[in-house]
Amino acid sequence: MTSDTDVADPDQFRNLVVKQSGSTQIRLQDIARVELGSESYDQLALYKGDPATYVAIELAPGANPLTVAGLVKDSLPDIESQLPSGLNVRLAYDASDFIEDSINEVIKTLLEALVIVLVVVFLCLGSVRASIVPSVAVPLSLVGGAFIMLMFGFSLNLLTLLSMVLAIGLVVDDAIIVVENVHRHIEQGETRFDAAIKAPGKWRCQSSP
Fold it and tell me: Is the pLDDT of residue 202 over 60?
């Protein structure tokens, strides 16, 4: 039964008069048990086997999930301090953890790529200067890619972070090949400028079927 009333307290409901005969009043508590219960008993929420109530937080359009997750975590102690005794707050699921892991993976991949470029180019050419040139190309390419993403309104998410990881691999591969090709042209007697111009084109010509 649904009642249309301003009464909200269980004690007030218990004292509601449902019938009056002369001086005798029959109140709701005389004929029924009144208690504060759930609106619906069709669903049951459990957390690690204990009864629980889940509260989901939806992001507003354009909101930063990392910022929202940080604000929620900062607010949890204050919320828990206001709860009745016996109730605890637990963060059951945090989607921002996957984004943070992806960002850490991008940073890890970037560092590994820089080390690989330095080692491979140095072992092949024996030149520290030649090793530094492609190493600088990797972070510069990421800066350029991030700038284009910003221009087109893209944000950092799992898809764009995956594309950046793939881009790092492509840049490292191309940088090593181009630097080695430039070094080969220089050894053949060409100037550094001419070698830098011819090396990428020469490499594309050799790689085409």
Answer: no
Half-sphere exposure of 53 toward its Cβ, with a 13 Å CA cutoff?
Answer: 8
Q: Which domain holds residue 30?
A: 1-37
- How many domains does the chain contain in total? 3
Residues 145 and 184 in one domain: yes
- DSSP H helical ranges for 48-157: 65-81, 96-125, 128-151
Torsion of CA 94, 97, 98, 99, to 10 degrees: 110
123 with 193, same domain: the answer is yes
Q: Report the alpha-carbon distance of residue 72 to residue 52 in Å, rounded.
A: 19
For 123-133, the pLDDT digits (tens) are 877 777 777 77
pLDDT at 129: 75
